[in-house]
Amino acid sequence: MASQRQIAANRKNALKSTGPRTSTGKRRASANAYRHGLSSQTDDGDNFEAVESLVRRIAGDTTDQDFLQRARVAARAHLDLARIRQIKRDIIDRVTHFGALDPLPLFRSLAAEMRYLKSQPFDQPLRWPERVHPLGPMPSEEAECEAEAVRRLLPELRKLNRYEARVHAMLDSELRELSLGMSNRM
Amino acid sequence: LIVAVQPCERITQLNELARDPDLAQLYQPTLLVSDSQRRYSSVRDAILKQLQPRDVIEEMWAAELIDGEWETQRLRHFKSLIVTSARRPALQNLLMVLLENQNSYDIEDLAQRFFTNKDVRRKVGAILRSFGLSESSIDAEAFRQSLGDLAEINRRLAELASRRDKILQRLEDHRAGLATPTHFDQCVSSDGVFGDQNDAN
Q1: ipTM, two decimals
Q2: B104 FRET partner, CA 20 to 30 A, in A57, B6, B98, B149?
């Protein structure tokens, strides 16, 4: 733990900090409050009815604004988790069918493309080579194919799981508070 | 599942949220093509029967439990499939090491046909035996090659197990009227004794 002298020194040093000075630093700092779309809690869009329906079911006929607000956050988080599950299913389906999320390049580099073009006869229509996935072809069996898709997607799924864990923590926190609110009202 | 089922007159109909037209879409199971709808239904019904959710909060927890449990089962199945799929590249890798002077196309061909052709299987078996190995060496190599993927999946499985335990604990607390505010955890030190939040820092 910091001593009183250290705390005083830290406070004194902090006074010297005047925030970002360069234009790059200022630009970066201006984006500190940036939020990506997935976490946006302001617009329920297509989910409006579902959110409101869930809020009504959680809150019943209460007029307690705090309770209603928590019910809304919990409903959004619950719907978000369902949306994440759908996204996961969709990207696994995509890789199952196409072998990769992004279109595969025909050539590894521009030089390789130039070499290929030079090797082609001029008097015949140009034939492009087959796209070959660097990770090899997908298995033929359905379940093995999906397992392979999941294996290829592990880095992307890790990111989605991280996001999902945050939403889950939010849902957990709100449901606990709602549960507490319910038991206090009984 | 360890939540004790207590008889209660206020038990809601199972899957009540799923019957709400506004929420029906939300509670559609997100299954992959190879997932069995019948198995999913049996997992869902078993969990709902065990938990018997009594209110909407419990239904939400139950829904999360069902999806977590289904993902767990699916990932466990995928783990064995991943190792199975790795057997061909594993054999190719083994043969590359054993037959240093052999053409790589021949090795690829051997590894490819090992799983479909009996003669090739016998031939490869003989090669492996001549180096003191057996077919189980292919499984070992396949497992070794898949270790990174399996570890990643195991991390996810541990996360899901921890989440399941947490939800079950919340359910028990909710039923016993023991739910605690979210800042409670931060106020309890590691030895379970209450302390001032400032002290903890």
Answers
A1: 0.75
A2: B149
